[in-house]
Design brief:
The protein contains 26 helices and 18 strands. It is of the alpha/beta class. The protein has a nine-stranded mixed β-sheet with strand order 7-6-5-8-17-18-13-14-15. The chain has a five-stranded parallel β-sheet with strand order 9-16-10-11-12. Strands 1-4 form a two-stranded antiparallel sheet. Strand 2 and strand 3 form a beta hairpin. The chain is globular.
């Protein structure tokens, strides 16, 4: 027995020695910070951070390849714990959550066949893309719900995913696993910045709205008896529902699918009903604001575009200040619309809502007189957006001459020259567009002593309005031409423009090559200043020197709109070259400008989303609908002729009653890409 104990003891000692030796030989150092961060992470291994699991993310966080806020599943508490381990401070983070994008389940959608195979969406789409006729429709087999690591998804009775917002962490597992990409991550900021793409299920009215409003969603809210909820939906992309409800040209109604059977839904009247309800209730609806960034943005121009841009810049977490030359905000909305169409108190309510949201406004402040782009940048603004319309541009030119550094309107240059006034020019002149007038102006610039003069045109030499003799004579005079080119950037110092970037375009409008040209005077053939974002330039000197001397700056161009036929340069074909034709177009431009500023401030490329729908894009749709019960559109009530005679300023349209709004909302077919609601009952007609 003693021998046995000795043998066992010896074996134990030998094994212990071997283990100790192995531990020494094969020892792998583990950073205690990585272990501490891994303990702080929730251990869900959902992949929402972009790494294989929590352990891989912990290592990446400590090594600086991932941020302390990268764990979307853990939220702010986990981020704070990680920051404590690393000894850093973090800012607040806006939460993401999943959002399904399909409108109708397979029981209500048109089908190609009945699927009875493996109950997994990824398997089902291998057979002709799934059973639905719609190429982007939800397959409905619940793969996303089963994959959710937090049990935040379930399948509804219509076989579409339902999100539990209290459980959803925005990890993105459902988004990655969906073979149709119809469930995506969203947030308040993402919805502000959304542009419709070919990958989305949307109604024809939505994609024709210049402001990008989710029209079926707000009409559904009205039908459910929630007009304030409808206003919330509208204000995600349009802060002027009262104004648009009165004067919008409503292109959405032209594309309403009900036109195929009777009359379009009164989309604009319903918008007005919801907005009027908000104003009469006294409750101010504001969309949530993203966490503050402490970054400041100046907006020049207090019209519809400028106020829209400022509002959404503020909602995206930045501080926005509007500089308006006139004593009151509103632009042409205040001075160009009759009182009986847009009462002043209605406009004031709308503008006050923007100011109450946190936008600061400085009125009676004129560009070029009371402040300059340079002074704003020196005052600490990280970006300056120019939202002066065609009318304001003309006023700048008439009253104060050059307001933007080096930029003048070609028409005013010509008028001053013909009036015998000596135009103020630099040594290097560039003329952007302008047709035949550009060539005449170029010759005048040469006569005035300009050292170099060049003309930039998006057209090719063969497509231009210039004859061979015109071009030959101009070149003899030293005038240079940039055909099939666009101006993509301006660069300057202090109050002076010093050079511009010209991009050569391919035949299909894409970029070929860039060239930097010395320019100190730019004459634009359009009837307005370009919509530009001025930002501090790349510093080549220490900040102390920069603060003492003239500030360096350069410009960004907001990403293209759905109206644009090309993506590159300012004054893109299809976009406005003077005042916008409708306020809703100016509002859409303001929102895109705000998103462009936000992209720049958050170090993202200032570009449109891939496959963004343009006005020229062919989108799948249906040319006939059935069975749909016909119903008459509810007309907008108006005041009597006698009242109009007594009070010409009285508002003519009086708005829907709750009963009228309810009945008109029932006419909406709640369309998707090709799906729509089949109506079984005729709505009761309310007079």
């Amino acid at each position: 027995m003693i021998i046995g104990l000795l043998v066992l003891g010896g074996l134990g000692a030998l094994c212990g020695f071997g283990l100790a030796l192995a531990a020494k030989v094969f020892y792998v150092y583990v950073d205690p910070k990585i272990e501490a961060v891994a303990e702080a992470l929730p251990g869900a291994n959902c992949g929402g951070c972009g790494f294989a699991g929590c352990g891989a993310n912990a290592e990446a966080i400590v090594k600086g390849r991932s941020s302390a806020t990268s764990c979307v599943a853990g939220g702010s508490d986990v981020a704070a714990a990680i920051a404590s381990v690393l000894g850093i401070s973090i800012g607040a983070r806006e939460p993401d959550f999943a959002r399904p994008g399909c409108t109708y389940g397979y029981e209500d959608a048109d089908l190609k066949f009945l699927y009875d195979g493996v109950q997994d969406c990824r398997a089902a789409v291998l057979l002709s893309g799934g059973s639905k006729v719609c190429p982007i429709g939800c397959v409905g087999l619940g793969t996303c719900a089963r994959a959710c690591p937090f049990d935040a998804l379930s399948m509804g009775p219509d076989h579409l995913p339902v999100v539990n917002l209290e459980k959803c962490t925005g990890c993105g597992t459902c988004e990655r696993i969906c073979p149709k990409n119809i469930i995506t991550l969203t947030s308040n900021s993402r919805r502000i910045g959304q542009e419709y793409t070919l990958a989305q299920c949307m109604a024809p009215c939505q994609r024709s709205c210049p402001a990008g409003i989710e029209i079926p969603a707000y009409i559904r809210k009205i039908k459910e008896g929630d007009p304030l909820g409808a206003v919330q939906v509208i204000k995600e992309t349009n802060p002027f529902p009262l104004v648009c409800g009165r004067i919008c040209v409503h292109p959405c109604e032209v594309d309403c699918r009900r036109n195929l059977v009777d009359e379009p839904v009164a989309i604009n009247h319903l918008k007005r009903y919801a907005a009027d309800y908000e104003m009469k209730s006294g409750k101010r609806i504001q969309i949530p604001r993203a966490p503050e960034t402490a970054k400041r943005v100046a907006v020049i121009g207090g019209g519809a575009e400028g106020l829209t841009a400022a509002y959404f810049i503020n909602r995206l977490g930045h501080d926005a200040v509007v500089f308006e030359g006139s004593p009151r905000l509103g632009g042409l909305l205040r001075t160009g619309i009759a009182e009986n169409r847009l009462p002043q108190e209605v406009l004031d309510w709308e503008i006050n809502g923007i100011l109450e949201g946190g936008v600061e406004a400085k009125t009676a402040q004129k560009l070029g007189k009371d402040f300059t782009v340079e002074s704003l940048l020196k005052d600490g603004f990280q970006a300056v957006f120019v939202a002066t319309g065609g009318w304001d541009t003309q006023m700048f030119e008439r009253e104060r001459g050059e307001a933007l550094p080096g930029v003048q309107v070609l028409l005013d240059f010509i008028l001053r020259q013909k009036a015998g006034k000596k135009p103020g020019l630099g040594r290097h002149v560039m003329i952007l567009g302008g047709g035949k007038a550009a060539l005449d102006a170029a010759r005048e610039c040469v006569k005035e002593g300009a050292k170099s003069v060049c003309v930039v045109s998006r057209k090719s030499e063969a497509q231009s309005v210039y004859s061979e003799n015109d071009l030959a004579a101009a070149e003899q005079e030293g005038i240079r031409f940039h055909f099939r080119s666009a101006l993509t950037k301006m660069i300057g110092e202090g109050s002076a423009l010093t050079q511009v970037e010209v991009t050569r375009l391919s035949l299909n409008g894409t970029e070929e090559q860039k060239e930097t040209v010395p320019v100190d005077t730019l004459l634009t053939g359009a009837g307005r200043f370009p919509e530009l974002i001025y930002v501090p330039g790349k510093m080549e000197t220490p900040e102390e020197v920069q603060e003492q001397g003239p500030i360096l700056w350069e410009t960004l161009i907001p990403y293209p709109s759905p109206f644009s036929m090309q993506d590159i340069g300012m004054f893109r074909p299809g976009e406005a070259t003077s005042d916008y034709k409708a306020v809703v177009e100016a509002i859409g431009a303001g929102r895109r400008a705000a998103n462009s500023v936000h992209k720049f401030l958050t170090d993202h490329p200032v570009e449109a989303p891939v496959r963004m729908i343009r006005k020229t894009t062919d989108v799948l749709t249906v040319m006939e609908i059935e069975p749909v019960t016909t119903s008459r559109r509810v007309e907008m009530p108006e005041i009597t002729e006698e009242r109009r005679m007594v009070d010409p300023n009285a508002e003519i349209a009086t708005g829907y009653s709750p009963e009228q709004a309810l009945e008109e909302s029932k006419r909406c077919l709640q369309c998707g890409l090709i799906c729509y609601r089949r109506m079984e009952e005729r709505p009761q007609q309310i007079q």
